[in-house]
Amino acid sequence: MTTEIYRDAWGIPHLRAGSAAGLAHAQGLVTARDRAWQLEVERHRAQGTSASFLGGSALAWDRFARRARLDDTARRCFADLERRDPETARWVRAYVDGVNEGLAGGTAPEFARTGLTPGRWEPWTPLGVWLATHILFAGFPAKLWREQVAAHLGADAIGLFAADGPGTSGSNGWLVGGERTVTGQAVIAGDPHRWIEDPGVYQQIHLSCPEFDVVGLAVPGVPGIAHFGHTGTVAWAITNAMSDYQDLYRERLRRTGAGVEALDPDGVWRRAARHTETVEVAGEDPVEAEVIETGRGPVIIGGPEGLDGDPADPSGLPVAISLRYPPRVTGDLGFAALLPLLRARRVADVDRAFDRWAEPVNVVQAADTEGGVLHRVAGRVPLRAEANSLRVVPAWEPGHEWRGWQETPRAGLTDGVAVMANQRGPAAPLGVEFAPPHRADRIAALLAGKERWSAADMPAIHTDTHLASASSLLDRLAALDGLTPEASVLRDRLLGWDRRMDSGSADAALYAAVRAAVVRRLAAHPAFAALTTPPVYPEVFQPWLALVPRVGFALEHLLRAGELFGVDRPAAVRAAIEEVALRPPAGVWGDTHRLAPWRVLEPEQPYDEPGLSGDHDCVLCTSGVPGLTDRAARGPAARYVWDLARREDSRWVVPLGASGVPGSPHHRDQLPLWLAGDLVPVVTDWTKMKKERDV
């Protein structure tokens, strides 16, 4: 059968082929035509070669990618896939062949701007893209932050800063069982919260062949539909489980005439793997990266000579830090789950597919047309000492080894619904820090407000802007007395505010201004002075180590703690509201809370940054950094509603559009809908599409 490529009114690709392999080839080809620049950026990021055309700004990532052995791990995982699951390996190869064909005939204006020529994808490149996309997903650099807090404030202070902090990714998701819907069939809805990128991190796509017919959100550069899909008889979705499955080890290293040795837990110095790689940097001299791997994993910070500003351990030896992560240990990235997901017909099929999942560790929800439902955690979390999850542990001490894998928890529905929003839910035994419960509690409360729900009702939940976490600051304001008249008026206005972070709300803007002023004052207190200058760790890890964002995202805890190292919090709140009362913001929340998508290159013709509703603890999670900026680079990277009664009644939207090519009519055509909370129909009727070509 000839592979056919169709487009709907939104430019979303619909592909029809005679086999799964033919479909994978077409998916790779179409993705390369629609997102050539994005694919090549991701390939270079996975290889650690992005500085070769982006210059010194990309060097920090390239060093990390090289030292963490991302490309080598992808190669190992693909070799393992070929041995264990040759069918999936052939399917991945077919996708890569399509990408290479599409890149050979594709163009993108960014190539001319950077002088980059599209290169060749290898069979393991999709695995490298997946790994590079998710290696920081579990937030292992937070352990570096906890080390700093413990060193300067004591171990008891670590919990004060626990929050859904910078650099993490979350999601909302909810499943409404058939007993709570107007059709008697389940509805699954939600939105993944990630960096809003241009082009987008999710690709709307429809894949059809004799074996399966699936619509869903694909990760560009990876075949199939992993995270969010609907086969007609079963649908699934995921959120970040906030699990801890990566460890950092403080290593003792020494150079010898033969290379580098590391001290192991049995007290023996053993040879570490070592080599040097050259990182090309556009417009600058090449840079060498020393790559060292111990029995724990690749060394990602420091080396035998330590790191400037990082003290030696008590023995006087310099210290380095290694990273242990599951695919490097097992040679498995979980790609064996991808084809079974596409072929799934019932919840049991989805469940078995996710048994093969590796990382990132996710909470999964699924439902089918026979009334089956699923709510479980999927992924690989090592069994090891509790200290491994909390801090950087000493590699030379016994007791920190991995001892197998955790059982992944399961849960059910409560009153016919299940809600996942990165809170302490079924994944609680597997993690350390979770998102505050506000989003999950709000979704549950909204769902409890009506007995029967439809797919068409779901956008009202997606776009809810109530900010429950405002209570901690508002309670502090309510307790103040002796304010100036201007501050007293402002305080009373905020206490009467409806706590909705709507873009057109002047009260929301006032609240955000007071919050930012409080954050800045707390961060500037002498009690936290030692945390203002982070260690001289690689730039990649700095977002986890910056004090102002940490205070901003942990403000609720810091304001409610019984004691805070002598910080006079009433005085800080008083000074903040007096400051804002003297110079209040002139406009509304959307004037400063604007969408700022991440782009590899700034556009030649800059776009307006639209104002946004929402905030980081709202269901409509559009996240700036309190105390630093109201501009939002994180938010819903897609929204979806999967209707099990009739797939054609499902809906979805992405922040920009289906095309990654600037100037395309489908590059930003979904943005107005995304801003308004509207969705576009999921089209599966081939007669309602326009045929583009046969391949």
From TrEMBL:
<dbReference type="InterPro" id="IPR029055">
    <property type="entry name" value="Ntn_hydrolases_N"/>
</dbReference>
<feature type="binding site">
    <location>
        <position position="244"/>
    </location>
    <ligand>
        <name>Ca(2+)</name>
    </ligand>
</feature>
<keyword id="KW-0865">Zymogen</keyword>
<comment type="similarity">
    <text>Belongs to the peptidase S45 family.</text>
</comment>
<dbReference type="GO" id="GO:0046872">
    <property type="term" value="F:metal ion binding"/>
</dbReference>
<dbReference type="InterPro" id="IPR002692">
    <property type="entry name" value="S45"/>
</dbReference>
<feature type="active site" description="Nucleophile">
    <location>
        <position position="171"/>
    </location>
</feature>
<keyword id="KW-0479">Metal-binding</keyword>
<dbReference type="Pfam" id="PF01804">
    <property type="entry name" value="Penicil_amidase"/>
</dbReference>
<keyword id="KW-0378">Hydrolase</keyword>
<feature type="binding site">
    <location>
        <position position="247"/>
    </location>
    <ligand>
        <name>Ca(2+)</name>
    </ligand>
</feature>
<dbReference type="InterPro" id="IPR014395">
    <property type="entry name" value="Pen/GL7ACA/AHL_acylase"/>
</dbReference>
<dbReference type="InterPro" id="IPR043147">
    <property type="entry name" value="Penicillin_amidase_A-knob"/>
</dbReference>
<protein>
    <submittedName>
        <fullName>Penicillin amidase</fullName>
        <ecNumber>3.5.1.11</ecNumber>
    </submittedName>
</protein>
<dbReference type="GO" id="GO:0017000">
    <property type="term" value="P:antibiotic biosynthetic process"/>
</dbReference>
<dbReference type="InterPro" id="IPR043146">
    <property type="entry name" value="Penicillin_amidase_N_B-knob"/>
</dbReference>
<dbReference type="InterPro" id="IPR023343">
    <property type="entry name" value="Penicillin_amidase_dom1"/>
</dbReference>
<keyword id="KW-0106">Calcium</keyword>
<dbReference type="GO" id="GO:0008953">
    <property type="term" value="F:penicillin amidase activity"/>
</dbReference>
